[in-house]
Design a protein that fits this description.
Oligomer: single chain
Structural class: little secondary structure
Strand content: 5-15%
Largest sheet: 2 strands, antiparallel
Number of strands: 2
Radius of gyration: 14 Å
Shape: elongated
Distance between the termini: 25 Å
Strand order of the largest sheet: 1-2
Order of helices and strands: EE
Number of helices: 0
């Protein structure tokens, strides 16, 4: 996680989401195409190396 503080006792975040918009759709961050687009941090699959 790392962007928002989370309280595991209550199961809730302690602050609002800093990224505007958003939804429960896991692929919305990359316009529905996680292979060809970047995430919010600028990471892309192209930069990963296979060991």
């Amino acid at each position: 996680m790392g962007v928002r503080l989370y309280n595991p006792g209550t199961g809730r975040f302690l602050s609002t989401d800093p990224v505007p918009g958003g939804s429960a759709n896991a692929y919305e961050y990359c316009n529905g195409d996680p292979i060809n687009h970047f995430d919010l941090d600028g990471h892309s699959w192209r930069f990963a190396r296979i060991l």
